Amino acid sequence: MRVMAQMSMIMNLDKCIGCHTCSVTCKQVWTNRTGVEYVWFNNVETKPGVGYPRRYEDQDKWKGGWQRNKRGRLKLRSGGRIKRLATIFNNPDLPVIDDYYEPWTYDYDMLTKAPLSTESPVARPKSLLTGQNMDIKWSGNWDDDLGGSQETAADDPILATMSEHVKMEFENTFMFYLPRICEHCLNPACVAACPSGAMYKREEDGIVLVDEDGCRGWRMCVSACPYKKVYFNHKTGKAEKCTLCYPLIEQGKPTICSETCVGRLRYLGLMLYDADAVLAQASVENEHDLLDAQRACFLDPFDPEVIAAAKAEGMEDDWILAAQNSPIYKLISEYKVALPLHPEYRTMPMVWYIPPLSPVVDVISTTNNDGEDARTLFAAIDKLRIPVEYLAGLFSAGDVVPVESSLRKLAAMRSYMRDINLGRDRDESIPEAVGMTGPEIEAMYRLLAIAKYEDRYVIPKAHVETARELEELACSLDTDGGPGMGGPSVATAAGPYGKTPGMPLNATVDNYNEMVGKGSERTKPTTPGRVNLLNWTGGGVPEGMFPPKASGSPA
Amino acid sequence: MNPLDILLWVAFPYAAAGVFIVGHLLRYRFDQFGWTSRSSQTYENKWLRWGSPMFHYGILMVFGGHIVGLFIPKPWLEFFGVTEHIYHLGATWLGSVAAVLTIAGLAILLIRRRLVARVKLVTTVMDKVMYLFLAGTIAFGTTATVLYQVLGAGYDYRGSISPWIRSLYAFQPDPALMSDVPFFFQLHVLSATMLFLLWPFTRLVHVFSAPLGYFVRPYIVYRSRDGHRGAGSQKARRGWEKSELPKDTREKVGGRR
Q1: Which of A44-58, A384-398, B243-257 has the lowest mean pLDDT?
Q2: B241–chain A Cβ distance below 8 A for any pair
Q3: Helix (H, G, I), strand (E, B), or coil: what is residue A61?
Q4: H helices of A422-505, where?
Q5: Distance of CA A51 to CAs A15, A326, A530, Å?
Q6: Could A196 and B231 be called an inter-chain contact, meaning their C-beta atoms sit closer than 8 Å?
Q7: Please, what CATH class does the domain formed by B10-215 belong to?
Q8: pLDDT tens string A375-408
Q9: Which band of pLDDT confidence, cut at 50, 70 and 90, is reported for residue A276?
């Protein structure tokens, strides 16, 4: 057993109103730059719909994720090591920018600089790739709220696997939103496909990252990721992806998308898992068993054996405590209401979803029945094949049983809590019908419906211990080549913003200004004509360090 | 041996080699972020799908041919029974296939770079200079081969150019070997030398990133925040380690595992 911790997310789809605040704030923070205009680390898709990039779920075309071969071993769907290097000169499965959309801006200058005329000036769209006028034909969210879905929805790969009858009727039946970020998989196909070995899974918290210095731009990660959540920066020639806002996570704060979520539908917390079990569990034969296989990888953070093994691996007590308090563990392993997105890709994704009950409730309400009555709801879940089968196509490789079970629990919560809120007697037969108890239902209600901030986000800080913070007071002679050199490893002595004395710092939101200020800024004299030698990095001679040279005399 | 010979066949190659080596070392040390092939596949793939593999496989064959022709001395090959005639046949036929692939591929790539607006706009000045010398080198080399090896009686560069190159590597430069070499071969060599000089400053550095390690590494790569294994933990700095039982006593007490 090799205990590892995974920072994971769960989204409660019933609460998503499709406002795209997560996408916008994420974009402002991470991809508001040249070369990544088309990149959405976080996007919100309307389902049924084609998704972003278009039809990314069609793995017959894009060859993303893993496949189990005849000998029962996992292989990347896009081919093994030899094929990958043989096709390195032209990635055969790479989406081109038109599969996303051609990024554009508007000719805003025209609005203010146009000469006086009888017509209003118009800001025409200009391509950011060619600078030419362009017709906007597609973008990240073109079929939002089923807009234009008469034409496009038939292209939804999940819908395509369902019957004709469903395809014709879905529009009158249901619609929901699916926010997506990188899945930070336990068995990431992008990492496995990277020829340079520049992509990695962090040992501490399982966040999957790209080493931008090691990336050589082969683009294999882009095509290997079945969720198409690794993007190619076409200006720098490097891969970029969702970082799960690790600078925030390291400080115990939620990601930008979670923090700004209007519906408060995102949960963040740790899952402990057995890294040695992942490969075998991802290789089970029947796709319907993949959900249970992934659950089998997770470890019980209350089990003394697991705790001992975790401590032996060097995990600190506060991390184990965080794993015990994790909302993710409750929703996945205790209540079993959360489901993974497309487990059939065999990457073991770690952003899970609570399927939406609202499509079912909506249908009941339109028929003037009681949408909060347990029996009506249970019957509807059994009868309404269309949303259930579609949800199964997303969350359980087509197996309706786990989706039904999850929806029934949500339905039970809905009607059990109504009785309590209306002051009626508690009907204990409702929780029983879904294999839960009254107190369990109430606890789940607190987590899902009340959803306090501190319950939603249980994020332990990364261990940068006090000793290290003290080191930041560092000796100013401790630079590369300086007399105090030899303490920290010389190779890493340079911080991201140039040489810093003392230990290398990790860039975080909180210490950014301090780090940028290191060096030139901080040696600026507070008193004119004087230099604070404590802040001198040893590089260069700041003004005022020596008295002015006497003119005429030799230096 | 006039000064021009020394300049062209001794000073220039050594200067280019120096820039090549030092340039790569410096760029590798200070510009990891810029070290990429800067692929334009996301902009356009219909032309690239054909042009890129043709050019790359072609140029790899050309590279292999040059290694054999320039660095393996003639007597060594003859020892293995590769006579002048066999060598000539092999070099001409295999070389022609490689040349056709390379030239056709490069032509597709250059036309694409000129005609596809998206690709044209991301082409830098350095790219253009590089393409000039790359195309020049290939064109001169092909011209020389066609004129002398295919149409002509055959020129034995293994008696002049190859020993000259090896003389450079042995630090015993012999520029006299190059003075009577046919003009197009000379142009080919000079253009190639210039390309090597420019190499570290162009996207050609991606050649040195051929990811051969991919064959042997495990699929899933784990890395630590600070180079230390352990969830949420951080390797203690010297002097800041936790108090723990010394290692050999711990075994006896039966501490961990």
Answers
A1: B243-257
A2: no
A3: helix
A4: 429-433, 438-445, 453-456, 466-471
A5: 20, 30, 61
A6: no
A7: mainly alpha
A8: 999 988 888 877 888 999 999 999 999 999 999 9
A9: very high
Spatial separation of the C-alpha atoms in residues A297 and A282, rounded to whole Å: 9
Residue A155 in contact with residue A143, Cβ under 8 Å?
no
What's the CA gap between A475 and B19, in Å, rounded?
Answer: 38
The token duo for B152 is 């002509």
Question: Tokens 């029947």 label which residue?
Answer: A286
Q: What is the pLDDT of residues B87-104, one digit of tens each?
A: 888 888 899 999 999 999
ipTM at complex level: 0.85
User: Minimal Cα–Cα distance from A93 to chain B, Å?
Assistant: 11
- How does DSSP classify residue A298? B
If you count them, how many residues does chain A have? 555
Mutate which: B33, B52, B225, B243, vs A, most A CBs within 10 A? B225
Å between B49 CA and nearest CA of chain A: 6
3-state secondary structure (DSSP) of residue A391: helix
- Could you give the C-alpha distances from B155 to A428, B52, B114, B161, B183, in angstroms and in order? 97, 31, 36, 11, 12
Q: Which of residues 157-176 of B touch A (CB under 8 A)?
A: none
Q: What tokens does A355 get? A: 């399927």
HSE toward the beta carbon, residue B28, CA cutoff 13 A: 13
- List the structure tokens of B97: 């296939």
Strand duo A230-233 + A238-241: pairing: antiparallel
What b/e string do you get for A448-484 counting C-beta neighbours within 10 Å, with b at 16 or more?
Answer: beebeeebbbbbbebbbeeebeebeebbbebbeebee
Domain boundaries, chain B: 10-215
| Domain boundary assignment for chain A | 3-100+141-266, 464-550
**Is 0.80 surpassed by the pTM of this model?**
yes
Q: Give the architecture-level CATH label for domain A3-100+141-266.
A: 2-Layer Sandwich (3.30)
Going by C-alpha positions, the residue among A426, A351, A466 that lies closest to residue A43 is A351
Residue B108 structure tokens = 């597709």
Name chain A contacts of B112, Cβ cutoff 8 Å.
none
